[in-house]
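Retry 2 of 3 after timeout on previous attempt. Resubmitting structure tokens to design endpoint.
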């Protein structure tokens, strides 16, 4: 923690903040710079919520001195059940399929106690870095009722409910839609408030399987959040078949497609036609720059030639909602990371060359991700919303995106939030953590 310390427990006004216009609602703005999309604002805080400064009258104030403030981060695609297992699994040196093999071999080690300890460690990192909401995919080989990952998640969700809003996706192979117990699986997911997920790899998708998936989601009132076409094979058709199924059945739930790397490899005309249909279907895309940048086009002893990114420029231009997220952290799929969304955003800007319009892409880690998760009280600096934000020791986008270790002050419900772990950045092996009930 560094920088600002808010006075007292009563109302307070933060003066002279620099804020992104695209993420700020209900406050007078001045000194708006159209090129950067930043403006200056005075923002009040009362009873843990943002309020117009003028509504507070005389009260204590703090001059932010032009520091940049962003809403708390929304990290909508992570794998808490795998986090911090790289010391057991190693990591892939030959792409996605090898990472899957290494991760599956570790599955028997994921006891409830092991999962709780590692999930808690992950959330402590995310909390200290300014994340306020996360959606985790959980490997669901059986029904959630018989899953250690779901048992652990239930405990973790309760313990963290006042600090990070958590959602869970039941991640399974697509072929499970053909099994007799699939409807029971969906019913169990719905009872737990979960999201229906699937891994749609090359050759796995058929119209019949996607029909079963979409119709089951509709029957049980479930949203969909899927791993789709996580490959650089331009012939991958999972995303196209998913889009067709969503449109064919007029599916009314939320549909999120993660990865979508193959979409960038398709011929331009085919790519653009599919993107147009995705926009029509209301599909949201989550791009995962860290893991996909690490795994795609990976082979020992040679330099990768292609980048594992969804075509975010073209998707956004067509009106498709875009989010960026952490994905894997220190596991077989990606051996680095710290659940720091600023690092994710920096990598996205580098890989996808977004630096010309940083304000345009700011919602991808905040508002647009919150909308995809159906979160109404996150992702914006809005009057009436919870006063959850990050104030950086940065004064413009170049400061924020160009540094290697940007200091930050975390606000939780309007108060300076001390992290739950030592903020020295020293490594704490997950195997040494002990779970303590809340």
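Retry 2 succeeded. Sequence:
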């Amino acid at each position: 923690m560094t920088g600002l310390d808010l006075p007292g427990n009563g109302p307070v006004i933060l003066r002279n903040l620099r804020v992104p216009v695209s993420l700020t609602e209900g406050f007078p703005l001045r000194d708006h710079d159209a090129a950067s999309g930043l403006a200056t604002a005075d923002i009040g805080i009362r009873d843990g919520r943002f309020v117009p400064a003028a509504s507070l009258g005389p009260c204590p104030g703090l001059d932010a001195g032009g520091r940049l403030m962003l809403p708390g981060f929304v990290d909508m695609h992570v794998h808490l059940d795998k986090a911090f297992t790289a010391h057991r699994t190693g990591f892939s040196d030959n792409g996605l399929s090898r990472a899957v093999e290494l991760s599956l071999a570790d599955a028997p080690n994921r006891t409830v106690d092991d999962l709780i300890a590692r999930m808690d460690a992950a959330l402590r990192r995310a909390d200290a870095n300014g994340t306020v909401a996360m959606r985790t995919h959980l490997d669901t080989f059986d029904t959630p009722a018989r899953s250690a990952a779901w048992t652990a998640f239930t405990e973790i969700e309760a313990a963290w409910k006042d600090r990070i809003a958590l959602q869970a996706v039941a991640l399974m192979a697509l072929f499970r839609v053909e099994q007799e117990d699939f409807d029971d699986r969906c019913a169990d997911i719905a009872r737990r408030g979960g999201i229906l997920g699937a891994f749609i790899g090359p050759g796995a998708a058929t119209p019949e399987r996607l029909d079963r998936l979409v119709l089951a989601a509709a029957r049980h009132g479930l949203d969909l959040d899927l791993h789709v076409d996580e490959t650089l094979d331009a012939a991958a058709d999972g995303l196209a078949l998913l889009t067709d199924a969503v449109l064919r059945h007029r599916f009314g739930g939320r549909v999120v497609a993660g990865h979508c790397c193959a979409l960038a490899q398709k011929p331009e005309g085919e790519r653009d036609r599919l993107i147009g249909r995705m926009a029509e279907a209301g599909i949201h895309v989550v791009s995962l720059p860290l893991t996909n940048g690490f795994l795609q086009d990976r082979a020992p002893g040679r330099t990768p030639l292609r980048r594992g990114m969804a075509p975010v420029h073209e998707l956004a231009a067509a009106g498709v909602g875009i989010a960026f997220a952490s994905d894997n952290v220190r596991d077989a799929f990606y051996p680095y990371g710290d659940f720091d969304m600023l690092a994710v955003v920096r990598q996205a800007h580098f890989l996808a060359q977004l630096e010309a319009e940083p304000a345009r892409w700011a919602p991808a880690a905040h508002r647009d991700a919150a909308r995809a998760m159906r979160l109404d009280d996150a992702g914006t600096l809005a009057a009436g919303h919870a006063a959850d934000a990050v104030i950086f020791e940065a004064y413009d986008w170049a400061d924020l995106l160009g540094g290697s270790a940007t200091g930050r002050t975390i606000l939780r419900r309007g108060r300076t939030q001390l992290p739950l772990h030592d903020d020295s950045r020293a490594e704490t092996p997950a195997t040494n953590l002990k779970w303590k009930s809340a």
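Attempt log closed. The domain at 73-372 is CATH 3.20.20.140 (TIM Barrel).
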